[in-house]
User: Fold these one by one.
Assistant:
Number 1:
Amino acid sequence: MDNGYFKVRAFKNEPGLGYNPTGAAKDELLRTIAEMRSGIVDIPLIIGGKEYRTGNTKDCIVPHDKNKVIGRYHEAGETEIKLAIKAANDAKKAWAEMPYDHRMLVFLKAARLASTTWRARLNAATMLCQSKTFYQADIDAACELIDFYNMNCKALCDIYDMQPAPALDSMNKTDYKPLDGFVFAVTPFNFTAIASNLPSAPAIAGNTVVWKPASSTVYAGYVIMKLWQEAGLPDGVINFIPGNARQISGFVLDDEHLAGIHFTGSTAVFNSFYKKIGENIDRYHCYPRIVGETGGKNVPPLPADIFHKAAGKRSKKSWSKKPQPSKWAAPKSSILLSALLLTKRPLIKSKATSTVLKHPPMPKFSAAAAAMTHKASSLNRQLSFQKTYTAKP
């Protein structure tokens, strides 16, 4: 009998460890960093739960020590890209039909593992791949990553709760289903949490995913993929294919089973996806959902006195040059928030856009819906994790 109603009823932010100058957590993190720096990890593609090595490899380097190689990843070619699409399609039916609470439990377990035994690995990989500090890595690769899993599971429950009111002579019910195909997740270099969220959010809702991680942070992406496998993610639900972005997107966007894009990156790349999908619209089995966050070109609004003071230090020649957007520029919300913090005065409107400026709101994360069936007993065994943080002996 299976008639219990499981629901994530509350969400709380994961607290940071702080990493005090001395302590078990700090010692474990330092040991993990040293271990990762001491070797070179061979990173395969993971397609349908199987590892593939193409022999076409690229180095994973440490940005603040650019000659230090900590890994080599295999790039996907045409064969592997098509295999990943097939694996996602083959896994779709069983994953979609799995009860929604069993799907959620995979990622709720991943959240607990990230909070405990996997925390040092995630943070160390983020520090080495993105040159972040202890604190920056922990609030990204641990706290925000964990929050995404927990919050998305609650969001799914909230969506399923949205049911139509009964009529006088009838009862009404809405069933939610995943998209009619696979989702293509393209993730950025700068946040481990976002790299984790873009493939996992559609998966929680019953979709299967082809995931192309950013080439400069494949190492951290591989750690995330192994975390999901440790948590019990069924084979084929998320398929990990690092490689040439243009080649991968070319094959994926031409596939008739494409049902969605989940993207964070540059405006130019996102526009090219949007355009290609429009050109291929008659080919698809459904209308692909396109969800993307872009940024990096926005100018921070400043009060006039600060603006003119800064401008006065620049030569006439430098102002005559057309500004070039930097690939390392912060997203719009980060720039606006930085401007607010640096000026230490309220900014009400930007004269250029007449847009009211506020601190970036917490985003609402939704999920689509519907339900690879794990038996309850095996899930209970998978969920027998430690709830409190302890350092490895």
Note: DSSP finds 13 helices and ten strands in the chain.
Number 2:
Amino acid sequence: MSVDTFSDDNRILPPPGKEEDATGAGASGPSVNTDGGAYVGGSVNTTGGTFIGRDQVTYVGYTAEEVERIVERTRRGQEAGTPPVEMTPTIKRQPWEPETIPIPAGPFLMGSADPNAPRAEQPQHTVALPDFRIGKYPVKLREYAAFLKDRKTHPAPQGWFNREPPPDRLDHPVTDVSWHDALAYCVWLSDPKQTGRRYTLPSEAEWERACGQSGVEDLLGAVQQWTRSLWGTQPQQPEYGYPYDPSDGREIADAAKLPAQARLVHRGGSFKSQPAELRCTARGNALPDSKIAWRGLRVVMHLEEPK
């Protein structure tokens, strides 16, 4: 999201040098860079904030005091000619720690309303989730390499030499990882000796919620991404269907609790998928030991204690 500056009465001001554009002939007044969102009926999806009418901005993930400080710093920055502050909540992270994007709490529509969609994606229904953060990208080779450097007995993916990734692909998604590998990486990342944060694989609901969020990259058509959600034992028909119920035992964050013969859901499709298969609602599944060159992982960070 691009950050706007404010007048004393909290109106959004045009950028420096654009005053005439915002008030001259043919102009409709101040505007907001929606970063891919949409301005509809007087409101705008600001990717982390809500623009209501033309005179108020509220920000998800900040206290009122923090917003006041940020707005004041933004004003001072413009007066001094320095770039405005970034409004997306960020966290300090290790050099090898995945970058994450905040996803605000609230309800969303999960599943497909298309009557021709696969039955596994129906019915469309409302799911409410708490705040969480999700990886901006699938986990990269350089990030997974830090895990293997520390866990020296954990097997490296195919194509690595002496447990080192190809040097010309360090920012590519790691692939050829099983569900067990992906979960082990999340457990390692959460270790107090590493980050001490609560990382795991996304649930199907978290992944699909993020699929409608601006700022989260490579969700569709890059690599398939493991989730912690069970599918069932039969590849063609899910035993864990919709409506999505996280309390029915479908979410597995502990490999020791994985049922025998269980298949796990993966999301996002890959570069091998047909265009029609690249949908936010599409569900795939695989055995947890499966490793292929077009499947990797993405992490979520939980901000609340698990219930």
Note: Residues 40 and 53 are 10 Å apart (CA to CA).
Number 3:
Amino acid sequence: MPLVETLLQHHAPQFGSPVETQLTLTDNDRSSEVSCKVSGILKGPMTTYIGLIGGGNISETHARAARAVPGVEIAAIYGTNPEKVRRISREYGGRPYSDFEQFLDHRPMNLVAIGSPSGLHAAQGIAAARRGLHVLTEKPIDISTERADALISEADKAGVKLGVWFQDRCKPDILRVKKFIDAGVLGRTILADARVKWYRPPDYYAKSRWRGTAALDGGGALINQAVHTVDLLLWMFGDVVSVQASSKTALHAIEVEDTLVAVLQFASGALGVLQATTSVYPGYPRRLELTGSEGTLIIEQDRLLAADVRNPPEDLRAGTEADLNRSADSPVVNDARGHQAVLEDFLHSIATNTNPRCDGREGRRSVALVEAIYAACRSGKQVPCG
């Protein structure tokens, strides 16, 4: 029996129409202007009905993001913790479900937002796609490229949209940096230095049945905490052709890594260094230093901290607002604006039959690189990517 079919059979019961829109939303894939600002999401009385899968912290973030979009209504919520599901239902609306099949049969419902353990994303997304529901899943798309490919194939077959919540792609200063790199402001790319030196207390793992497990988390600090940064490195600097890496479980009583260092060789010839931890107390803001032949751009806490380039464009300036979420030492998302922007973009893709900013194939890229990094950790050798 194929892997994803097995997951559907054993896990899906336990875990958990396009609307017309009018908005301004452009990026480098759609035009030369990079923006993630939306004006006027829904046009007319039509409502988009969304179902939430998960019931944990991130599903509440999805609920807040959905409530912030005019014309979007939470129709149903599925999760394995009835108390949490009922609480989200009371606060944000939507019918609570503890049975996954009954949840999928709920109507009206146009799309699902998946916030369950990472190792269930593909199985649950496939089940939803087979019901004709669009699928927007939390990062990572799943914990292996095999499962990601199965979900992508099923979404294609069903004719539904598939997106991945990589909200950093919608943050203003990160968008500006992407624009500058694409415009050649850095010149020939030379080095990317990415530091995700975060901390999670022991309870973060001890009180969870899935965090820090190979079966449902797929790994540790790399695939859970640093996968957003992996996505940004690929998005900004392009494909990676080979990796070397080393990891260890330095602090926590878990079966996967809490400390990892990787050296990346990009197809462009640039090198990269990635540090990913949940073991570094007290936890420090994520930092990206991106260097090319014409200078360096530094992003810290998602704010453009420094722009030292030989020929700066007129609109190149330091950013004004850091990310408000305390990601360095807490998994809780207090500021849901990034998630809201991803949802708005996904609704636009449904309405216009275009690809979302991060579709299934884009979401797969980070998982493929994560797989290569883990393979390098196991082998102690340089591992090719792609």
Note: Confidence is low (pLDDT under 50) at residues 3-44.
Number 4:
Amino acid sequence: MPIKEPMHSIRVRIVGGILIFTIIAIPLLLLIDYSLSTNPNYAKASYIFDKHTIWKLKPKLKGIKVYEGKPGNEENTFLLTLNNMGFRGRHWTKNRTKKQRVIILGDSYVAGLDYPDEEIFTGQIESRLNEVQEEYEVLNASCPAWGIDQSLLRWENEGIAFKPDQLIFVINPNDVREGYIKEHLFVNGLNVLEQAKNRVHFKERCLWYMANKSSIFQYIQSKVGYEFGSFERMFEFYTFNFGLDDRTDWDRPLFAQELDPEVAKAYIYVKKCLAHMQAICSENNVQFKLVILPSQTEFKNIIHLEGYEMGRLSKYLTALNKDLKIPLLDLFEEASKLENPLSLFQSWEYHLNKKGHDFVAAHLSEFIQEK
């Protein structure tokens, strides 16, 4: 009759086997993950979920970028690094390093992901302001595709804790559309701004987290055709255009001489958001300033369309500012004075080029110094 092995001995073998497998498997998986991460096709997702702004860039992200983002320029690259907040520039600390702290808030135009830190306008501004005396600290608080709603929420829930002397909000036409249409921050029945429940469900957030953490996961989903962790997934949960014959140019309805009622509501929504930003600044002794940044489409497309008007956002904000009295820098007006305003934008895309960043830096540096 065979002798039975004691049960505790079997358990020891099982636990020992699992332990040995784990000791071997974990380093092997980490090595595979690192190896895959060097391939841009399997790089970890650069956006992370945020309970306030839905998405933001991953803090301390590093990646090789093509300079200017220009097709055919792949040999000319630079190292893009984000700080502890997921923004461009130096790490944020609550302790000041200079006498004056300025936060510049905005979207991809402010983020300037196609250029190194020292070439985007926020980096240039700090250098310009400190040429004579080291007095200014300029903090870039931006993320691609943020609307006015997300900029406001980031300021209210995080930015104000860093106690700047000035808050500069850089607004361009797409901020109006993206903020209003998403309905992430809406005007409730009491005529008060309220953050809506996030539409990105728990399962999606878990898979998004995996895309942030694992290149193995990125490899697997690339083979099965999924895109968890990519910005394109947001279109599953949010609408970004008016749906008013704007299939090729989502901002076009904003420039109509006779506004659709829905677009008119979007402009009213902007006034509500700006008034709320202004109120927070007043309560915290922060000077609030507004910068209107034109879009490429105004000088390239709208100018040729009958029934549409360039500078619509500029005119609207100038008019409503008679009530709000926010210090205003209108860069649409300044750009219109140039012989060729299109020279400020990338010809292969729609963002600011190096000349555009230089242009904004020159004007905004002076604006910051105005009392």
Note: Residues 1-38 form one domain.
